[in-house]
Write a structure and sequence with these properties.
Layout: E1 6-8, E2 24-28, E3 34-38, E4 41-51, E5 60-66, E6 71-78, E7 83-90, E8 96-105, E9 109-110, E10 114-121, E11 136-137, E12 143-149, E13 152-158, E14 164-167, E15 174-180, E16 183-184, E17 187-196, E18 202-203, H1 207-211, E19 249-252, E20 255-258, E21 268-272, H2 280-292, E22 297-301, H3 326-341, E23 345-349, H4 366-370, H5 384-399, E24 415-419, H6 426-430, H7 441-458, H8 462-465, H9 473-496, E25 502-503, E26 506-507, H10 516-519, E27 525-530, H11 546-551, E28 560-566, H12 577-588, E29 592-599, H13 624-632, E30 642-646, H14 649-653, H15 663-668, E31 673-677, E32 697-699, E33 713-715, E34 721-724, E35 729-733, E36 737-742, E37 749-750, E38 754-758, E39 763-769, E40 780-786, E41 789-791, E42 799-801, E43 806-811, E44 818-822, E45 828-829, E46 835-837, E47 840-845, E48 853-857
Parallel strand pairs: 2-18, 21-22, 21-29, 22-23, 23-24, 24-25, 26-27, 27-28, 28-29, 30-31, 30-32
Antiparallel strand pairs: 1-6, 2-3, 3-4, 4-10, 5-6, 6-7, 7-8, 8-17, 9-16, 10-15, 11-12, 12-13, 13-17, 14-15, 19-20, 33-34, 34-35, 35-36, 36-39, 37-38, 38-43, 39-40, 40-48, 41-42, 43-47, 44-45, 44-48, 46-47
């Protein structure tokens, strides 16, 4: 590829290249597109999209490079269309960006869809005091404009007409500006696009620009061992061996407790898919490593996902899905035994991805399920036969006797919880499958009969009740149908003698709060939430990052688990998330957060990153020991105040309330304990009104903002957690854990006993007492310093991890502390003595040894 033209950003009208709290911001994304932010909430987001014939997606590989202090260069290539795209961006006047594109096609293309820029507009952004107007398209395919507030407009215009500009599927929140249409002629063409912004808009640097380049020569190639842990936290489990010694886990109000009355608190992960069927020696080794990393819970997941996992607990060689694979069950038995020996508990899923087959005799409508490769999500709520098959499997699975522990799974106190079916709700995701236009006539007939029966009982109108996609009576009906399924499953588990809390399915995937009533059938509410990069910079007044989506599942009076959370690879700042989750989980009193995944690949020597296997990722697992100690020992205290967002019948069922639309959920999730109060309604006689006691402050306005006006940070009511979204920095300041994460390289951060003077732009640095004493009196202190981890280009090891530079000063009452670096196997390595002055120890990073973990001990 020829050298791309330089992308110049001239700072005449857009005034800042640093983090800014200006009302209007604009940034060039890492892919060379543009984003507009209002009050640090993304208002306009764009991306380059291209398609070949028949809508075959044609990915554009792009690169934005620095070209000196003045700007950057964008080059892109769409291989499927044999198209190169270069761009130059200038700022000729205040509030304007001009994109000068050059497109060069290597050959003629006909019969394609084409492509260009897609703009996604947040039309209902809560950042405005009153709703903005609607965007309008300019004549002759020359762009669009949007009057967002009084006298303020965002506009995208082209000097000459382009192929087309249109609202995708008529939806005004999505505008496609197609540079290329159905025909792409060979040769070069130019396009000039001007973005006009509201007055006072400031240009902020992209995350990649702020990070700086990867230096393969100085970054660490093997900081994390896949077989061992740099920190040994197995002492956390010493009084819990074997797991289950305190009896079965029970739900007591909104907490989990053991049978002996001891509080139960779990820091967990997932062992999924191929990881289940690992070599026995590896299983035993990993169980030991899991305990050393500080975990005390592992969820067994994708145990039955027959469509993509080669071996599962269900024997795939049979004509039906009703037989257990004894070899895989033996491996699962061994996992449970090895984890139990290490004081690590187990969560079992009952249904995730089981592939129902013709031999299962599914009855009328079988072809509608078999056409979906045996996937029964949604269908199971309307089929007695499928429910019978699921109950039969549950009985076989939970009655299976572990050949090593000699206990049936249902009688094993080391198994602390169950999930009936994974991500399988009617209320938001799968109820629509029963509609008449989905090609499932048998199930549509059953669905309509159930709607009719429900409406006859409740007096609700049939027409509205059958509109599964619309809030209102439909959400009552779908909750009821899901409730009937739950009762069938729960009664079967009760008949088996199951003693532990059971979750029905999960609160996940942009669901409204109207999904919560059916989830409340069980002993514990389970949530799933995934984040993206740069979430420490999200303004909770207007934007929900992944934390409020976890918090929204906390139904008043119910325990909360999170069997899936992650900000997965390749997000550059995923190192910030373990402490973020652990701190908020302590504040809120969540019972069992579990990262997805510890691993879903078979164990061995990995040669590349894996998005869903974090166990050898220095960015995620590097911070896990510090997060485990913080959560399991309660270094962050519980919130001083509890709030209950008490919803009315109309609020819950007749609107799509969610963290995205509820400022109360977004702002309380990081401030005080938040619970969701549900109404009891006559249409659903199995629901009961939440009745918080007098110590709980009741909130009835979902959009109430609990962050003081004019404040650009959110802080816990204990004062221990603070997230400054304008700076993109979170701090944790407690007697036993003190940490700074995010864009920490801009200034010194002073906490009670620790000062962080980090020069690496973005990192997570934590000081942890390991002996139960406050940091100032501790004789065993862990220092963890983690930043980016990227794929190692030579593939000899999976990751290169970035050394953290700067200084950490710890003020201590203890004299004579010595510094040791910790290798990947936890062995102490020589390290330079810390500088001492006035009762303080200063550790200058990086410390020799190529590691991210250090011990300060006597």
């Amino acid at each position: 590829m020829k050298k791309a033209p330089v992308l110049f950003v001239v700072l005449g009208g857009l005034t800042s290249l640093v983090a800014s709290a200006a009302e209007w911001q604009v940034r060039i994304t890492d892919s060379g597109a543009v984003e507009v932010l209002h009050k640090q909430a993304v208002l306009v987001k764009s991306a380059y999209l291209f398609w070949g014939a028949d809508w075959k997606f044609a990915a554009m590989k792009s690169q934005v490079e620095k070209a000196g202090a003045e700007g950057a260069a964008l080059s892109g290539e769409v291989a499927l269309l044999k198209l190169k795209l270069d761009a130059r961006i200038t700022n000729p006047a205040p509030g304007k960006l001009v994109f000068a594109y050059k497109l060069d096609a290597a050959e003629d293309m006909k019969g394609i869809v084409g492509g260009g820029l897609e703009f996604n507009l947040k039309l209902d952004s809560p950042s405005f005091d009153k709703p903005p107007g609607e965007p309008v398209l300019l004549e002759d395919n020359k762009g669009w404009k949007w009057a967002v507030a009084d006298g303020q407009t965002i506009a995208v215009s082209f000097d000459e007409p382009i192929s087309s500009v249109y609202f995708e599927r008529g939806q005004k929140q999505t505008i496609r500006a197609m540079f290329v249409g159905k025909e792409l002629p060979k040769g070069a063409m130019t396009i000039a696009m001007t973005v006009t912004l509201p007055e006072g808009a400031e240009l902020v640097r992209s995350a990649s620009d702020r990070y700086g380049p990867v230096d393969a020569k100085t970054w660490y190639p093997d900081a994390m061992s896949p077989d061992d842990s740099p920190v040994d936290l197995s002492f956390l489990n010493k009084d819990e061996k074997p797991a289950g010694k305190r009896g079965f886990v029970k739900a007591k109000g909104d907490e989990l407790v053991f049978e002996d009355g001891t509080a139960a608190r779990f820091w967990g992960g997932n062992i999924a898919a191929y990881a289940i069927f690992s070599d026995k020696e590896q299983i035993q080794k990993q169980a030991r490593r899991i305990a050393r990393m500080g975990y005390n819970l592992m969820r067994i997941h994708h145990h039955d996902s027959m469509t993509w996992v080669s071996r599962t607990v269900i024997d795939k060689t049979k004509a039906d899905s009703q037989h257990l694979d004894e070899e895989v069950m033996d491996r699962l038995d061994w996992w449970i035994k090895c984890l139990k020996d290490e004081g690590v508990y187990v969560w079992l899923d009952l249904h995730v991805g089981r592939q129902f087959k013709e031999g299962d005799n599914l009855g009328e409508g079988a072809d509608e399920i078999l056409r979906r490769k045996g996937e029964i999500k949604g269908f199971c709520h309307f089929s007695p036969r499928i429910q019978e098959l699921m109950r039969d499997f549950n009985a076989k699975y939970l009655s299976h006797v572990n050949s090593y522990t000699k206990l049936a799974y249902k009688d094993e106190p080391a198994i602390m919880g169950l999930l009936i079916t994974n991500e399988n709700d009617l209320t938001h995701h799968f109820g629509n499958l029963m509609l008449g236009d989905k090609g499932n006539p048998v199930y549509n007939k059953v669905f309509l009969a159930k709607v009719k029966e429900f409406c006859a009982k409740t007096g609700l109108p049939e027409g509205e009740t059958g509109k599964t996609w619309v809030p209102g009576p439909s959400k009552m009906f779908l909750n009821h149908q899901e409730h009937l399924f739950n009762q069938a499953m729960l009664s079967g588990l009760k008949d088996l003698g199951v003693k532990v809390p059971v979750a029905t399915t999960n609160y996940w995937g942009d669901e409204g709060l109207y999904s919560l009533p059916a989830l409340s059938d069980s002993g514990i509410i389970d949530t799933h939430s995934y984040g993206r990069g740069e979430e420490l910079s999200d303004n909770p007044r207007y934007t929900a990052n992944f934390i409020p989506w976890l918090a929204a599942g906390q139904v008043h009076g119910k325990p909360l688990s999170a069997t899936e959370w992650n900000v997965p690879y390749p997000a550059k700042d995923r190192c910030t998330t373990p402490l973020y989750v652990a701190g908020i989980a302590c504040l809120q009193g969540w019972d069992a957060p579990m990262i997805y995944n510890y691993s879903q690949r078979a164990f061995g020597r990995p040669d590349r990153p894996d998005t869903w296997s974090t166990y050898y990722d220095p960015a995620i697992s590097g911070m896990m020991p510090a997060a485990a100690v913080l959560f399991r020992q309660g270094h962050v205290g519980p919130a001083r105040k509890t709030y209950c967002l008490k919803l009315s019948r109309e609020q819950l069922y007749y609107s799509h309330l969610s963290p995205a639309s509820c400022a109360a959920v977004r702002t309380l999730a990081e401030t005080s304990k938040l619970t969701i109060g549900l109404p009891g309604i006559k249409e659903l006689d199995w629901t009961a009104e939440s009745k918080p006691d007098s110590s709980v402050q009741v909130v009835t306005e979902p959009n109430q903002d609990f962050i003081p006006k004019g404040q650009d940070f959110v802080q816990s009511d204990t004062g221990e957690l603070k997230r400054d979204w304008a700076k993109g920095v979170q701090t944790i300041d407690t007697p036993r854990t003190q940490a700074a994460t995010g864009w920490v390289g801009a200034e010194k951060i002073n906490l009670k006993d620790v000062t962080f003077g980090i020069t690496t732009p973005k990192a997570a640095v934590c000081v942890t007492s390991l002996d139960g004493q406050p940091i100032a009196a501790s004789r065993r202190i862990l220092i963890t310093a983690v930043a980016r981890a990227v794929e190692n280009p030579d593939r000899k090891t999976p990751y290169l991890s970035e050394p953290v530079s700067g200084a950490v000063t710890i003020r201590s009452q203890v004299s004579g502390l010595k510094l040791a670096a910790l290798g990947p196997d936890g062995k102490e390595l020589p390290a330079a003595a810390p500088a001492t002055s006035g009762g303080a120890y200063t550790i200058n990073l990086p410390v020799a040894g190529g590691t991210h973990w250090f011990l300060l001990t006597q």
